[in-house]
Amino acid sequence: MLYYPCPSTPFYLIRNTSSYIQGESFYLIRNTSSYIQGESFYLIRNTSSYIQGESFYLIRNTSSYIQGESFYLIRNTSSYIQGESFYLIRNTSSYIQGESFYLIRNTSSYIQ
Description:
- This protein has one domain (11-104).
- It has a seven-stranded antiparallel beta sheet, with no helix packed on it.
- The protein has no helices and seven strands.
- It is mainly beta.
């Protein structure tokens, strides 16, 4: 299991698509005891190409916070390999602007 701790809340990012097309969706599983275990998110890609540093919009799908709370996901890798890491920059006024997270892609299975 690939695990990158974060000062506050680590996440696991699970791809829920078989191809890389614009607007593809992801499921983000939060792995933290601070909130409900298994809280789900939808990640919507907002880019037409896979280049280093491309941005994403993360739409939170949970009743704990405002529906549609937005995030920016910044890729921190130059290639698509299993276990590549991401930085998640939260874009919300509910928390500190620019609060960072690590996301782990696991494209071959739903095993954590």
